[in-house]
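Hi F.,

I've been meaning to write this up properly since the lab meeting, where we talked about keeping a consistent format for the predictions we share between groups. The idea is simple: the sequence comes first, exactly as it goes in, then the structure tokens exactly as they come out, then a line or two of notes. No screenshots and no reformatting. I'm using this chain as the first example so we have something concrete to point to.
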Amino acid sequence: MVRSRRKLPSPAKQRTGRSRTAQLVWAGLVLGVILAGIVFLRHILPPSGSRPGDRATALPVENPLRPDDQAVFAQYGGSESCRQCHSEAFEDWKTSHHGLAERNIKPELDQRAFDPTRSFGHGVDATVVQWATNQPQVTSVGLSGQPETIPVSRVIGHDPLRQFLVPFPGGRLQTLEASFDPRSNAWFNVYGTEERRPGEWGHWTGRGMNWNFMCANCHNTRLRRNYDEQTDTYHTAMAEMSVGCEACHGPLRAHNQWQQEFGKSGRKDPTLTKLSKAQVVDYCGFCHARRGDLTGDFKPGDPFLDHFRLTMVDDTDTYYPDGQVRDEDYEYAAFLGSRMHFRGVTCLDCHNPHTAKTMLPGNWLCMRCHNGSYTNAPAINPVAHSHHQVFGCDTNGQPVNLDLAAYNPKEIKETGGECVNCHMPQTVYMQRHWRHDHGFTIPDPLLTKQFGIPNACNRCHQDKDASWALAAAEKWYGSRMDRPTRARAQSVARARNGEPDAGEAVLRLLDREEIPYWRAVLTELLEASVSKSGVTQALLRGLEDTNALVRGSAARVLETAFSSGAPGVDTALRRHLTDPSRNVRVAAAWSLRSVLDLQSGAGQELLHYLNANADQPAGQMQKSALCYARNDLPGALLHLQKALAWDAYSTPIRVQLVTVLSTLNRTQEALDILKEGCRLAPQDPELHYQLGLALNDTGNLGEAVRELEKALQLDSRLGRAWYNLGLAQSALGKSEEALQSLLRGESVALTDARIPYARATILARQGRSGEAAAAARRALEIQPAYPEAQQLLKALGR
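Output, unedited:
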């Protein structure tokens, strides 16, 4: 999938360092290195002509399997071993998207994409594809910045698009940006119009398109990445290429052997363990979730949260505030947040496990439950409920006779009344892949008007506006539109916008939210309000929640309270270093990282997590953060230098590096790092802002003001920049300009008490005591325990 552009650290997650330049977000380095979200792969080359069940392969080919891999893979029988006894399931799986998730090049499938030779343009570049010497080749701009011809070795995906893997040094495979649409027999750039250059993390030559880390786990069976940080090389291996039977059922060699010996005895097979519904959803989530990897070694039957930190609705735009997917977030998290999942629905209630297709077409699938026969599923008349025509139903919403065996969805024109059109709207990813949202959200045009959250009505009726859609919804559904999910989305949106009272609304919702996923979301959104009354206690309650997702969120957010010395937090976090869920243990360990015994069980799990992500720039950033928290500044510096070498265009890495250099009093190096960043990314407001801070630290106020003004020209809502601009202008004796800058800052950074306090000090120096007192009171409204503002009011006699 196409990765989203990196987000700048949230101001709410910033911590003041030893200088202004060090206003960096060590705390904001969230525990999960959420990098699983791109469609690229690479791997080994099994024998040509291999059948389903290509077994135990390692990359590169000449490297033998490691002993520990051999021990693991010896438990696997391969999908081909299932064919004889489970022929129907095998045939369904063989041609499914799972069965074709990854494979070697096959002329009968792939030659038409490369032969005849053709070229297609994208941005300022062009790519040439050709079939030469019985092998596909692609000519594209490589690491050198010039066109390079590369042989293609593997294919990922089947329909609606295919991506191609090419070998790279160090046991790597990289995924090309050039992708093929088999339906239209056309090539296209998976990034669309986005220009990615050599040296960028997301360029096809970069680590963001590295198969070993980004793709291989979910396109193969029991993959072992085997990254060696010292040599920066991979010895990646897997039990079977593609998503085989054992990717979901677990290792089956023992089952095969038992069946061969005792299969006709009538005895129960002791090698098989039936997975629970929760375990089924968890193994689907292994691949169908955007998440950070804690272990690198998930297998069916394991709890999801023992291996991953889930990406959820938070203070970024990864999801919309009502839970709809925005970035390429897959299905699992949205589904966890749905009332369908909360009421017990699982993936296999709707999807055939071997074809992965839905069990029935259209509304027939939904009406299996919403027909009045299930307590937890309200009866729905599709026509009356949707106010649209519904294919396959009469005007009363009753299904008409239809030969489902002859049903061909490609021949049916959707009518608007299909349940999924409203409750599972589609978004296109990777330019070709339309995917249904699995949050089962309710369209609400009011949220579109208030916060820009999409609604299904206007996704279809693009010639109409949200006011038209809202009028129709209110006419049809009346007061039912004012439902709890609307209030929750409004509160989440306001918290994300940094509105002053949003934390109080989030606290109220947290007390009555039923769905664990949303309790975890609301808990994470309290991070900006930790200093406010009642929040720490709510987080401590969350740490005792029955759901591990909620406990993990509470453990992460309590880091701020722990750092400030809030009573009871240290003890509570230490107690959860032995929590039943690894997700919680690692979160608690991260929050305690400055004082944690790294030789303890939780300490070792934290180190394992960091090592599991050490092949990515974000993983090196986290290693640096651990060193920084433990006052190992040379170690922090080395990890950040490595991260920047791997991703020179990353603003967060560059800013982190400047923080460490400034702390080490290497000011000129810090300035050079920021100036180079501004050269590479001249339109990045954060870099100009940080450069302004660094220049201010050197006493160069004039240049500092110019850089801060550049930052604000690029992003006028950067409240921190208005604040620092106001301080610099005041230091230059430009008091009126400073007051205007600070007022602008207050208008966009509604929860930053420093800004009205700074304005109060300037007004007080000018003898405008009444205005100064009002500004100081404003600071105390935002942060009641603000001693400087209290002292200023006392000095003013107010």
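Notes:
Residues 1-53 have pLDDT under 50 and may be disordered.
The two ends are 59 Å apart (CA to CA).

If this format works for you, I'll send the rest the same way.

G.
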